[in-house]
Specification:
The protein is mainly β. It has one domain. The protein is built from one helix and six strands. The strands form three sheets. It has a two-stranded antiparallel sheet with strand order 1-2. The termini are far apart.
Length: 84
């Protein structure tokens, strides 16, 4: 088993003419395993299939309601998940 400290010191080398292009909207970002700017829901395994939702400044688990506050997307520029 590899030492955790050694894993944090590993890098990938890309030659300038072989540098992969950043995924575009709708394409899979293989590094993060998410599609760029493609809306998705975060569904809980709790009863009634509750979804992650935004209520004011809080994140909550609620029943599906069709509002955009329950939709999320992967932002390629910041490498973060954002609320739609």
């Amino acid at each position: 088993m590899a030492d955790k400290n050694l894993l944090t010191q590993q890098f990938d080398l890309y030659y300038a003419d072989e540098m992969p292009e950043e995924p575009k909207k709708g394409q899979l970002n293989k590094e993060f395993g998410m599609y760029v700017e493609r809306p998705f829901f975060v569904r809980s395994d709790l009863g009634r299939g509750r979804y992650l939702d935004i209520l004011g400044r809080n994140m909550v688990i609620k029943t599906p309601n069709g509002f955009n506050t329950q939709q999320w997307w992967f932002d390629q520029k910041t490498k973060t998940i954002k609320n739609w």
